[in-house]
Amino acid sequence: GGYDVLLEFVEACRRFSVQPGIFYTSHCNAYNTAAYGPRDLTVAEQDEFNVVQLRELMMGKYGPMLELWLDGGLNPQHSKTRQFLLDNGDRWVTHGFPERNGIRWVGNEAGVVRQPNWGASSPPFKGSDLVHGDPFGTVYYPPTADFPMDGACWMWTNHTAGPRTTAQLVGKFTGTSGQGAKMVLNIAPMDFGALNQTDVAAYKRFGSALDCLYSRPIVNVTFAQGGSMIPRKQGGWELVWDVGRS
């Protein structure tokens, strides 16, 4: 019908002081197959297509964006897409691209942060380095832990499962943000586009619970005063930090 759904989305985000982001895949070119376009694209053509599309999405009329979430990371054959991100990725945070303002996935969609969990990593960014990070990492590559509100669905849904309880959400918060990761809580729209008000109410209860639980700082983190974090040795190379209580 001539609507620009993405533009409506980013305008709505900004109206409510929410910074928008884009979920994008460089691996799948199903929308360029004969069923949707003139023909299937080669890997090289898809690489060029990605650059044009990402420039429009991230730097055109929809920008500025907070985040680009690369589903499954970047296809290693897409060298032009990689160069575009290297040249321009300092303008946003990129999920799945450690070379430029990158954040990493903890390896599951259940909001579970496996220990140990480090905020750095090292090339080639595979296997356990993606899940746990690397204490000797050369790149700051902090983790995000994502999970859906209703326990099952990420996309369009009729919401038959129902939202998680406040206690469950607080537990997820302490198990993600409390374990050194950024918690990402998905709220899926209904099949006709609106948000389910039961989920919205669950979000509000969750926010109120956090406001109550963390209305006062748990620890003193005023490092400028000195001595509030004191490192002490605990076997081998490892340092344990004693944090001063408020």
Order of helices and strands: HEHEHEEEHEEHEHEE
In helices, the fraction of residues equals 25-40%
What portion of the residues fall into strands of 2 or more residues? 15-25%
Largest sheet: 6 strands, parallel
Count of alpha and pi helical runs = 6
Shape: globular
Structural class: alpha/beta
Could you give the order of strands across the largest sheet? 1-2-3-4-7-8
Could you report the average pLDDT, rounded to the nearest whole number?
83
Determine Rg (CA atoms, Å): 21 Å
How many β strands by DSSP? 10
Unreliably modeled segments: 224-229, 235-239
End-to-end distance: 58 Å
Any key phrases for this structure?
alpha/beta; two-stranded antiparallel sheet; single chain; 246 residues
